[in-house]
Design goal:
5-stranded antiparallel beta sheet, alpha+beta, 25 helices, 669 residues, 37% helix, globular
């Protein structure tokens, strides 16, 4: 029996080494025939002697484990994301901030892989678990699928206990083959490599992941000091020596000029790579320097992710159609010949309003260039006038609502047209979708498509219907794609939303002009729905940032008998009508003052500074005017600083801002 066990271990080692040489080093050492022979021998022995079978055996690479659900895994060290930058000026500013701190850094440049972040844990060199990034603190256990990825070693070349992090991705060639197979089977095509990789590792059946030919690049060691490592480059080499696949494109750069050269080189090489990238990650190499630079509340200060400019492609503008928003606003939308932009198929793009279309001179039938703003939202860049044939037709703005045929109105000085029919069906469903959205009641499981389905099926026609959805439980379970567990989770999420703080409900109601920040201001100020509803327009105007138009919208909303009945109904259903957040902190330097930030602040991100200002009742703004109280000036501030000086507005430089934030205890968080 000992001989059998030894032979099984020997076969496993041969197969693991062959996998490493083939998939990581791209240097096969045995033939496919030999590999298959060894694999069949091991499978036979494991079937005959299951007591000796290793859970990390190479035979498990083909999948076969099916789980009921994904368990949660808490990361011992949080998996932080990196701050994005979008141009060379921001990269240079990053370098200058580090140099101002007294350092002369080397950098490591890594290609930013368009995949799914993963954390891998090993105990004495043996693979234990794999987890997604999740929210950075808690991820999902995807161990059963990670075992199927041939570039993930099941046993390291040294018996170390370690966690490494990297990216799971799908090669472009794999996606092309998968989509060819799916097209032949009449299945929906996978949109891009990133979504395909993410969907593959989130399969409950590991056989599906095993067929997807996923791959990995490993690029981060969370606790390098435990292994006597002094630089990030050393960490990459160490992980490579253990058997992990690290990207040969990684480069150690002596200065920011070499970083720029790397970026330009791979901007050109990007289309020819066998995998998708969307940028370059730039990290300070020296680990003691990283430690001194530290972290903000969200990001490390020693690394950034440069995003490549949006890719533009050409397609045909087939038509312009119109949709009605929850406030009655009419939005023209481009209907396009389907085209792949940044890896996903685009068939629609918003055209915002009539003026936008006229300004771009668009005609139906034009060849237009498309890109993704921020690599996410499709937008029409321009019409290719030189490609016109004479068969194009001019754009004409509609005069009546496309859903209820009510005449549209365009108020003086505004660019948007509105359907003022409160009972317009399209306007109503948009309001329902808004009510359950993330910044409103945040009901997980009620996305836009599902809300449309439930609306069309008659389950949800009004906001209170959402809280009666449990009456349709048996009907929901019988629908395609809905099981007992998913319906139960949805109903629990709806019930949980009743405990949301007042500002979420206020925002969800869709009162004209009330965004999430204004809703928070109103909730903090008036504490209860009843108190807010009792205020007159004149009383509301006394609140800073509540002007006469917004005050009128609020007062008119609560004066409407239908809206009163809706709020009474929601109260009967058990929805919270009280502000549950923290009391407004006050500081005489910040509270009730309007701030503008210009230039780059070396020690803290703009979003973080604005968040602190808001927490003390201040009001961040994007433009300088006579109403501005303070302008915070960082490096390379631009014209806003000059305008502030001309208007005699108080200016805080970095030193003063740092001192104020230190006094508030914000520099130690």
């Amino acid at each position: 029996m000992e001989e059998i066990k030894q032979r099984m271990e020997e076969l496993a080692n041969i197969l693991e080494e062959a996998n490493y040489n083939y998939y990581v080093l791209d240097n096969p050492t045995i033939t496919d025939q030999e590999f298959d022979s060894y694999l069949r021998e091991l499978e036979t022995l494991e079937e005959k002697y299951p007591e000796y079978a290793d859970p990390n055996s190479p035979t498990k690479r083909v999948g076969g484990m099916v789980i009921d659900k994904f368990k949660k895994i808490k990361h011992q060290i949080p998996m932080l994301s990196l701050p994005d930058v979008f141009n060379e000026e921001e990269i240079i500013a990053f370098d200058e901030r580090i140099r101002k701190s007294g350092f002369n850094p080397e950098y490591v440049c890594e290609l930013k892989i368009d995949g799914l972040s993963v954390s891998l844990h090993y105990d004495n060199g043996v693979f234990i678990t794999g987890a997604t990034r999740g929210n950075g603190v808690v991820g999902e256990d995807i161990t059963h699928n990670v075992r199927t990825i041939k570039t993930v070693p099941m046993k390291l070349k040294k018996d170390v206990t370690i966690e490494v992090r990297g990216e799971i991705y799908m090669p472009r060639e794999t996606l092309a083959k998968l989509n060819q197979e799916r097209e032949e089977l009449g299945l929906p095509l996978l949109q891009n490599c990133r979504n395909a990789a993410a969907g593959s590792v989130r399969q409950l059946d590991s056989k599906i992941a095993a067929k997807r030919n996923l791959n990995t690049w490993i690029y981060h060691l969370p606790n390098p000091e435990d292994y006597g490592i002094l630089t990030h480059w050393e960490a990459l080499e160490y992980m490579k020596s253990l058997g992990f696949k690290t990207n040969p494109a990684n480069r150690l750069c002596k200065n920011i000029d070499e970083v720029m050269s790397f970026i330009h080189e791979y901007a050109e090489k990007r289309p020819k790579l066998s995998y998708d990238i969307d940028g370059v990650v730039i990290k300070v190499n020296d680990l003691s320097m990283q430690k001194n630079l530290g972290f903000t509340s969200k990001y490390p200060r020693w690394a950034i992710a440069y995003k490549f400019p949006a890719e533009e492609v050409l397609t045909k503008l087939k038509d312009i159609i119109f949709t009605v928003g929850r406030t009655g606003r009419i939005t023209p939308n481009a209907v396009l010949d389907p085209v792949i932009v940044m890896g996903s198929t685009v068939q629609r793009a918003t055209l915002h309003n009539e003026d936008y279309i006229i300004e771009k001179g668009l005609k139906i039938g034009d060849t237009v260039s498309i890109r993704k703003a921020g690599d996410v939202i499709p937008e029409v860049v321009e019409a290719k006038v030189e490609r016109r044939t004479g068969n194009e037709t001019d754009f004409v703005m509609i005069t009546n609502c496309p859903i209820c045929d009510t005449p549209l109105e365009k108020k003086p000085g505004q660019v948007d047209h509105y359907c003022l029919n409160q009972n317009c069906p399209a306007r109503h469903i948009e309001g329902l979708i808004h009510f359950v959205s993330r910044h409103a009641m945040n009901i997980d499981g009620l996305g836009e498509r599902i809300m449309e389905d439930f609306f069309n099926l008659g389950f949800i026609k009004t906001i209170p219907d959402i809280y009666h959805l449990d009456e349709h439980k048996e009907d929901l379970v019988s629908l395609e794609g809905y099981g007992h567990k998913s319906v139960e989770n949805l109903l629990n999420a709806i019930e949980d939303s009743k405990q949301n703080s007042l500002e979420r409900l206020l925002f969800g109601l869709g009162i004209g002009g009330i965004g999430d920040k204004t809703a928070l201001l109103l909730a903090r100020t008036f504490k209860t729905m009843e108190n807010l509803a009792s205020k007159t327009k004149e009383e509301l105007e006394t609140i800073r940032d509540i002007g006469p138009i917004l005050a009128g919208n609020i007062a008119n909303y609560f004066a409407d008998v239908d809206n009163q009945a809706l709020i009474d109904k929601l109260k009967e259903l058990g929805l919270n009508m009280t502000y549950l957040g923290e009391e407004q902190k006050e500081n005489n330097l910040i509270t009730n003052k309007r701030f503008v930030i210009t230039g780059t602040i070396s020690f803290m991100g703009r979003d973080e500074i604005e968040g602190i200002i808001e927490s003390y009742g201040g009001h961040p703004s994007s433009s300088v005017s006579s109403k501005t109280d303070v302008v915070i000036v960082g490096d390379k501030p631009g014209s806003k600083a000059d305008k502030a000086r001309n208007l005699g507005i108080e200016i805080w430089d970095e030193e003063k801002l740092y001192s104020i934030l230190t006094d508030l205890g914000k520099m130690n968080e």
